[in-house]
Write a structure and sequence with these properties.
By secondary structure, this protein is mostly beta strands. It has a single domain, classed as Jelly Rolls, CATH 2.60.120. Helices cover 10% and strands 37% of the residues. The chain has helices spanning 2-16, 185-192; strands spanning 24-28, 36-39, 45-46, 48-56, 63-69, 77-82, 87-92, 95-100, 110-117, 122-127, 135-136, 143-144, 149-152, 171-179, 210-213, 217-220. The protein has a seven-stranded antiparallel β-sheet with strand order 11-10-9-4-14-1-16, covered by helices on one side. β10 and β11 form a beta hairpin. The chain is globular. Bound molecules: 2-acetamido-2-deoxy-beta-D-glucopyranose (2 copies). Residues 16, 40, 209, 211 line the site of one 2-acetamido-2-deoxy-beta-D-glucopyranose.
């Protein structure tokens, strides 16, 4: 028993050191309201940000791609696919911008980058290399809270919980990065093309601190041969 506890302690300790996930992906292999990856940050405030990720799914229903909540806003920063309205949504401090007409095909990788800053209040969503218009969402106040909870796999309907299997992500996700500033269009294009881009200074896929809950696997990213 003591040995088991020691082992568990070691496993937890290992999980706390950053891991280089270059060339890897998280696989979310089943629909559940339990599986997620929690991404650690010690940041407590964002007055601007850029979040990028690549995902691969065949879901034909609503699902969250990236969910950050604070104690006052469950949708502090959320990227969500709304199947009914066929729109990609960016929620910031519980306000949302909707983007229709994205070619969100199943069974292929899609790259999404979203930028927002509190000064202008404008959000912009890049999808597979193409920018959206810049829409007003919410300005003036930053996204803040002493306990930011960032997750992929589940959408937080309340702070750190309120999961709905019917909004869960099923598929693969890779290259999750977060910056506390707005990336230039040129940098975003480099991310989209998977060329040499600057890694996130808040979340860095090459040095990621995270915790896995339930069945999520770390696997080599499957690419097609060229
Ligand atoms: C990550 O967050 C979890 C949950 O709050 C915590 O238990 C863990 O110690 C954190 N890891 C690091 C490296 O900060
Ligand atoms: C991201 O992680 C890599 C690998 O540890 C490191 O070389 C790089 O400096 C990090 N970048 C940032 C912006 O933190």
């Amino acid at each position: 028993m003591k040995f088991l506890l020691l082992l568990l302690g070691m496993v937890t300790a290992c999980a706390a050191t950053p891991q280089d996930l270059s060339g890897k992906m998280f696989t979310f292999p089943q629909e559940t309201n339990r599986a997620y990856v929690r991404l650690n940050t010690t940041r407590q405030e964002f007055s601007a940000l850029t979040v990028c990720h690549r995902s691969f799914t065949d879901l034909k229903r609503d699902h969250g791609l990236f969910s950050m909540s604070t104690s006052s806003h469950s949708n502090g920063f959320l990227i969500f696919w709304d199947e009914t309205n066929k729109e990609m949504e960016a929620h910031i401090r519980d306000k949302k911008a909707e983007y229709r007409g994205r070619d969100y095909k199943p069974d292929m990788w899609h790259s999404v980058c979203t930028t927002w800053d509190s000064g202008s209040g404008l959000v912009q969503l890049w999808f597979d290399g193409r920018p959206s218009i810049r829409k007003f969402v919410t300005s003036g106040l930053s996204i803040r809270g002493s306990a930011m909870i960032i997750m992929i796999g589940q959408e937080q309907d309340n702070h750190g919980g309120g999961f709905d299997a019917k909004q869960s992500f099923v598929g693969m996700m890779s290259d999750v990065h977060m910056w506390d500033y707005i990336l230039s269009p040129c940098e975003i294009q480099k991310y989209m093309d998977d060329l040499n881009y600057t890694p996130g200074n808040v979340l860095n896929w090459s040095a990621l601190e995270f915790q896995i809950a339930d069945r999520v696997l770390i696997e080599d990213k499957q690419m097609t041969c060229h």
